[in-house]
Amino acid sequence: MATPQLKTDSKHDNYDYPTTSPTVQSGHPGHTTPEQDAQVFQLRTQLEQAGYSERLDTLSMLRFLRARKFNVNLAKQMFIDCEKWRKEFGVDDLVRNFDYKEKPKVFEYYPQYYHKTDKDGRPVYIEQMGGIDLTAMYKITTAERMLQNLVVEYEKLADPRLPACSRKSQQLLETCCTIFDLKGVGLSKVSSVYGYVKQASAISQNYYPERLGKMYLINAPWGFSSVFSVVKGFLDPVTVGKIHVLGSGYQNELFAQVPKENLPKLFGGTCDCGEGCALSDAGPWQDPQWTKPPKWADSKGGASITIENEPSSTISTHEPQKAQQPSSGPQGAGMGAQAPMGS
After folding, report:
1. Which tens digit of pLDDT belongs to each residue from 294-327?
2. What CA–CA distance (Å, rounded) separates 150 from 185?
3. Rounded CA gap, 262 and 277, in Å?
4. What whole-number distance in Å separates Cα of residue 296 and Cα of residue 68?
5. 233: number of Cβ within 10 Å
């Protein structure tokens, strides 16, 4: 039996990490049908004819197609909407120049961070929602800057985090393992942060599809399962299958997915980073053996950058574009801020 391989495009594909998905599932890299390969070609060709030239690599095309059940027209519209948003939000500038200098103080209320990997080699993303106090946080930062940080971390997930994890695990990794700690979360706290979470979740669903591997909601308060059973009705069934709602006795199930040595002591693990796990950004992406400079770092400085997917437009790298609220995604508002909710 032939070894599964991604059918690549010589013009747009230049990968320096594995490109075959460990998920033996139709539509995933290395496991596509001839019809799906044709749909990738069709989507890319239509986007090229519409004037787009960036982010047309095969892995990206497949993610947009999977997010829209391989409906080429819907995937094309999703891609176009994403590129429009990237230009308006100033994504290319933000990822190079954004300085979230208030992060340590914001994290005193709302830690959101990537930390090492799960047993499959994927980045682990953690949010602790029990200490959220927007009144206090907005004396330190703004909702706009929180969203800008969210987007920068998404970009860094795509490169360099996931490529570094793929090199280390010797298989393509496109998703992350998410842990939401709901300890101390009450209904009043959820309602106070709903507006921000809705915007953040829409960004995840609409513009960063197919990034959710597994999600663990731990320390879920009494009655949460009932609430979630309602929310599930608005989510894609594939996404629902990746979400695990656990109470305070979460450790055995969580340890089955995330090695104890990779989990902070706070969650029963054994990791105790010197500078604090939340601020360490520890993972293969910090190891010179596995990481490489991200492709977005190729262009730096304060000069104007031409956005290739909008040939007639330029944006200044001096001042980020004002954040704009995206429209709600087809799956409804997700939970948490940075966790990708695409199936």
Report:
1. 999 875 443 333 334 554 333 333 333 444 443 3
2. 21
3. 10
4. 26
5. 8
And the tokens for 260?
A: 């104890």
Mapped onto helix, strand or coil, the DSSP state of residue 142 is coil
Sole residue written with tokens 């239509």: 46
Taking the CA atoms of 259, 28, 200 and 197 in sequence, report the sign of the dihedral they define.
Answer: negative
- Residue at token pair 């070894």: 3
Which amino acid does the sequence have at 122? Answer: R
User: Are 58 and 29 in contact, with CB atoms under 8 Å apart?
Assistant: yes
Are 30 and 24 within 8 A, CB to CB? no
Cα of 276 vs its chain's centroid, Å: 22
- Cα–Cα distance for residue pair 119/257, rounded to 1 Å: 6
Burial class for 201, CB neighbours closer than 10 Å (0-12, 13-18, 19+) = buried
Residues 114-153 pLDDT 10s: 999 999 999 999 999 999 888 899 999 999 999 999 999 9
Nearest Cα to Cα of residue 146 among 106, 88, 192: 106
Token pair belonging to 318:
């001096």
**Hey, how many other C-beta atoms are within 10 angstroms of the C-beta on 202?**
21
Q: How far apart are the first and last CA of the chain?
A: 29
The encoded tokens of residue 338 equal 């940075």
Lookup: tokens for 10 = 């010589």
Summary mean pLDDT of the chain: 86
Asked if 85 and 207 count as a contact pair (C-beta separation under 8 A), the reply is yes
Q: 339 pLDDT exceeds 70?
A: no
Closest CA to 161 of 128, 126, 124, 127: 124
Task: Count the Cβ atoms, other than its own, within 10 Å of residue 107.
Answer: 16
Q: Which residues contact 277 (CB under 8 A, 6 or more apart)?
A: 113, 115, 264, 266, 271
8 A C-beta contact, residue 52 and residue 37: no
